[in-house]
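User: Could you go from structure to sequence for me? I need the amino acid at each position, not a summary. Structure tokens:
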């Protein structure tokens, strides 16, 4: 990056976005602009940096063309994290997921085009784009059939990013996140992720619920690794449109997750098993070779270290 960094973080009050905002706000010569409509993002996530001189928080929607063009004209880097996450939410309301995730992203691309500026774009994709592919580990060029509207919205974003490079010369890097977890990830909403839910179960002494037989596995990725990936993607000069897996290269089952939390919490809770949910992927494990080669990504926080940090954060709330 050049001496003066002007970066826009969309969805900056959300889980990953707020961690990114804090990360960049602590860097010298950096001006951070945050956009969030606070439909999901929590203003509490920004309390540490809300009074910082180098942080500008805008309550707005990425689908607002006039606002986005105005903001984008004054930045040089964009970390796009705004989205309606959750497979379950997209199954319940596919139109809402499409409108936010696809139309919002398209408006960002179009605003970059209309700004007539060379802007570096890094955006959040998802491991859900691998669908029902049985191949492990997941490689960027080997996809299966998509299993949810959410997965489709993320794949459409990748298609649009590629088209905007080929047609308008706008370079971008899409980061296919693999089950990110860590501080600022809430447990108390209908579409919460498994790790904050399970952490809360152990803190409140409730048996965690597993959908399926517990052998379902994920490449759980601590959020600090994702911050590194975003920084390196933004600072690597690449002419093109690329997608990269961002995980740890591990495979942790839900049964193993429960066992780990038993050890961390020093409690012996027993999981309750329920029917496997539609749209869920059975196994997920990232091949991160491309990210290592292209941007120098190297996850330095292991699953168990990240889980200890996350449990401690949840317990302190």
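Assistant: Here is the amino acid at each position, in order:
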């Amino acid at each position: 990056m050049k001496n003066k960094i002007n970066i826009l973080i969309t969805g900056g009050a959300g889980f990953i976005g707020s961690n990114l905002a804090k990360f960049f706000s602590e860097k010298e010569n950096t001006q951070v602009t945050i956009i969030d409509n606070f439909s999901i993002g929590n203003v509490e996530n920004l309390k540490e940096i809300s009074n910082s001189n180098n942080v500008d928080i805008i309550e707005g929607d990425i689908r607002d063309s006039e606002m986005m063009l105005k903001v984008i004209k004054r930045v040089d880097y964009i970390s796009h994290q705004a989205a309606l996450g959750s497979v379950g939410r997209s199954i319940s309301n596919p139109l809402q997921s499409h409108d936010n995730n696809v139309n919002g992203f398209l408006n960002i691309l179009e605003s970059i085009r209309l700004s007539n500026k060379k802007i570096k774009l890094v955006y959040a994709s998802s491991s859900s784009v691998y669908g029902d592919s049985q191949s492990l580990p997941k490689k960027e060029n080997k996809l299966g059939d998509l299993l949810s509207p959410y997965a489709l919205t993320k794949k459409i974003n990748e298609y649009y990013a590629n088209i905007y490079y080929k047609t308008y010369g706008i370079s971008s890097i899409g980061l296919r996140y693999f089950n990110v977890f860590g501080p600022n990830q809430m447990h108390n909403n209908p579409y919460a992720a498994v790790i904050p839910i399970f952490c809360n179960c152990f803190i409140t002494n409730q048996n965690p619920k597993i959908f399926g037989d517990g052998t379902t596995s994920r490449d759980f990725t601590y959020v600090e690794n994702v911050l590194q990936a975003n920084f390196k993607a933004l600072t690597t000069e690449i002419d093109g449109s690329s997608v990269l897996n961002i995980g740890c290269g591990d495979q942790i089952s839900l049964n193993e997750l429960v066992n780990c939390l038993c050890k961390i919490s020093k409690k012996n809770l027993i999981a309750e098993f329920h029917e496997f949910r539609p749209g869920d992927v059975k196994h997920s494990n990232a091949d991160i070779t491309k990210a290592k080669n292209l941007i120098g990504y190297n996850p330095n926080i292991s699953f168990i270290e990240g889980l200890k940090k996350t449990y401690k954060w949840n317990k302190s709330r």
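One structural detail worth keeping in mind: The mean pLDDT is 93.
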